[in-house]
Amino acid sequence: AGAAGAAGNSMASATQSFGNTMSSAAREAVRDTGSAMQRPAAPARWPWLVLLLLGLGGLWYFMSGRTRTSATVAPVAVEAPANSAGSPATSAAATGRYDEASGNYIYETGSPAELKLTDGTMLSVGANSTESRLYNFLNDASVSVNETDKTQGWISLDRLYFATGKATLTAESQAQLGNLASILKAFPNAAIKLGGYTDNTGKAEANLTLSADRANTAMQALTGMGIAANRVQAEGYGQEHPLAGNDTPEGRARNRRIDVRVTRK
């Protein structure tokens, strides 16, 4: 019986020791778990760094592309296309105003400019005037006459007017014709063609005749100022190839015009 009691005591002691050990281990595990739950995990920063680098790289590529484009693209002068075959390539964005008293379209010719011709003649004109555009074209050796598309290169005479329904030049038209004659004398190899146009009022056949008569009148004025007849041609196109709509007085005034085109430099 004594031996059995001793064995029981030993077993109880071992059991208690094992229980204490397990309790201690459990407490440590719980404490470690609690500590782990209380301490936030260190954030994984590398994905954000990668995204930031990719964003900066994209921004650099975009900005460098814009810089390259700005550095290599040069402004190009655009010539307005002709409305149809045989029509002048006069800019549709021409600025000016309709004068109700005279029925004419008054062009804005730009700031005052002086053209010094080879014979010493000085012409006081506008920077955007017919004279300036014609002189600059003739004086620029790098620009040639377009022999392929003859609808291009036309310039409207911005101060040439006729009596209503007639081929009679008004008095103020003489100044511009005189300037054209002076420019042609300064470029003796140059030749031009004059084109006459009307609005769509009345019959088309009558308008065609009137436009031809007006173009011929302007041509005769130039030859009368000393320009050889073989240097000037004239043709009427009637109401064809308008620059503007004929549904307003301003549009009709713009369409009643004489245009000039250089045919030889």
CATH architecture of the domain at 96-264: 2-Layer Sandwich
- Please state the structural category: alpha+beta
Q: How much strand?
A: 15-25%
Read across the widest sheet, the strand sequence of neighbours is 5-8-6-7
What fraction, in percent, of the residue positions are helical?
A: 40-55%
- Work out the helix count: 6
**Overall pLDDT metric:** 79
Radius of gyration: 45 Å
N-end to C-end Cα span:
143 Å
Main sheet attributes: strand count, strand direction, barrel closure: 4 strands, mixed
CATH class of the domain at 96-264: Alpha Beta
What would you give as the CATH superfamily of the domain at 96-264? OmpA-like domain
Q: Rough shape?
A: globular
CATH topology of the domain at 96-264: 60s Ribosomal Protein L30, Chain: A
Q: What string gives the helices and strands in order?
A: HHEEEEHEHEHEHE
Tell me the number of strands: 8
Low-confidence stretches: 1-42, 65-92
Give a quick rundown of the structure:
The protein has helices spanning 2-38, 46-72, 130-139, 173-186, 204-224, 249-255, and strands at residues 96-99, 104-107, 112-116, 122-126, 155-156, 191-197, 232-236, 257-264. With 265 residues, it is α+β, with helices and mostly antiparallel strands.
